[in-house]
Design a protein that fits this description.
Belongs to the RNA methyltransferase RlmH family. The longest helix is centred in the last third of the chain and has 19 residues, at 134-152. This protein is globular. The chain is of the alpha/beta class. Helix 1 packs parallel to helix 5 and helix 3 (85-97) crosses helix 5. A five-stranded parallel sheet has the order 2-1-4-3-5. The protein starts with a strand and ends in a 7-residue tail after the last helix. The chain has helices spanning 14-27, 49-64, 85-97, 115-120, 134-152, and strands at 2-8, 32-38, 72-82, 102-107, 123-126. The protein has one domain (2-152): Alpha/beta knot (3-Layer(aba) Sandwich).
Length: 159
């Protein structure tokens, strides 16, 4: 299975980079993982709603450039479905069984994901109603994907 994480925002913190590297290494046993890091657009301090929408749309167009037509897209969105780790594992497994071998997870920037990306998404997933920094969220996503593979292979890790 080919997994791609498309994420808006540069990862600067060394400890987050180390965590990403660790989960990428662990996942290499189970899938091919690509991480595409896209620049975020600068948002002025007192940006209007119209300016924010324009920024999200610009980021969205950049995201869409990195999504192939045959990809199954999972957008990480506050309005998405909240599921358990076990259900995520089952979902990923079912995608593979149904022939969806190219899965793209999309993490938006600080303003969220554009409507054009939401429309392209095949599934919208929400980890929590809380807001997380997108850099930290990348680690959280990879950890959950790793957990999903461990669950699907009946391997110890999940508690």
């Amino acid at each position: 299975m080919n997994l791609t994480v498309v994420s808006v925002g540069k990862l600067k913190e060394k400890y987050l980079k180390l965590a990403i590297d660790e989960y990428s290494k662990r996942l290499s046993r189970y899938c091919k993982l690509d991480i595409i890091e896209l620049p975020d657009e600068k948002t002025p301090d007192n940006a209007s709603k119209k300016e924010e929408l324009a920024i999200k749309e610009k980021e969205g167009q950049n995201i869409l450039k990195h999504i192939k037509d045959n990809s199954y897209v999972i957008a990480l969105d506050l309005k998405g479905e909240m599921i358990s780790s076990e259900k995520l594992a089952s979902y990923i497994k079912d995608l593979g069984v149904r022939g969806n071998s190219n899965i793209v997870f999309v993490i938006g920037g600080s303003l969220g994901i554009s409507e054009s990306v939401i429309k392209r998404a095949d599934y919208k997933l929400c980890f929590s109603k809380m807001t997380f920094p997108h850099q930290l969220f990348r680690v959280m996503l990879l950890e959950q994907i790793y957990r999903a593979y461990r669950i699907n292979n009946n391997e110890p890790y999940h508690k």
